[in-house]
Specification:
There is one protein chain. The longest helix is centred in the N-terminal third of the chain and has 22 residues. α2 runs antiparallel to α3. With 172 residues, the chain is of the alpha+beta class. β3 and β4 form a beta hairpin. It has 2 domains: 44 residues; 93 residues, no CATH class. Helix content is 41%, strand content 23%.
């Protein structure tokens, strides 16, 4: 990878980097998948009762594909760090705007997501997946979000990777 000159990041805004240093998909727990199977099965039984077994099986398969797709693509955000940006779900934060990074305990995560949460904070929370989070202060005065709160199964690894990526990006 070629080293970009200082300030080249501003010209590359909106483009993700190529070197991924951390990636985690916050996949829903098994019980959610079992629920989609039960729901698709119920739909298949209902349609199959009136329209025949073949239609019932087809309905079950299509319903499970749709519900599984929704779980996989909409309810399972990706947390990703590359050489340019930090991503949490659909949101992007260029590494030059990553401020203080803090790994939170369960109690601290609970208090930050509670009624005292800043309404402008960006929250990428999947509490059924992980109870702990990482708080990232946004160092961009133009950004409406003062901080990001991102749950992770491995918050220490996420914080370490983000700190390292931010520091490497700052030396470019």
């Amino acid at each position: 990878m070629t080293k970009l000159p200082r300030g080249a990041g501003e010209q590359r805004e909106g483009i993700d980097g190529k070197v991924v240093s951390y990636r985690e998909r916050l996949v829903p727990p098994l019980i959610w998948w079992l629920f989609t199977i039960a729901l698709a099965g119920a739909l298949g039984i209902a349609y199959g009762h009136f329209l025949g077994a073949t239609i019932g099986w087809i309905t079950t398969a299509i319903s499970e594909a749709v519900l599984g797709g929704i779980l996989w693509f909409r309810a399972a955000p990706i947390v990703r760090i590359d050489d340019q940006v930090f991503r949490a779900g659909p949101a992007r934060l260029p590494l030059r705007f990553v401020g203080e990074i803090q790994v939170l305990t369960e109690a601290a995560t609970r208090s930050l997501r509670g009624p005292t949460t800043d309404p402008d904070a960006y929250l990428c929370l999947r509490l059924a997946v992980a109870r702990r989070a990482v708080a990232v202060v946004v160092a961009d005065p133009q950004d409406p979000h003062p901080y990001w709160l991102v749950t992770s199964r491995h918050p220490e690894r996420l914080a370490a990777a983000l700190t390292q990526a931010r520091d490497v990006h700052a030396t470019m």
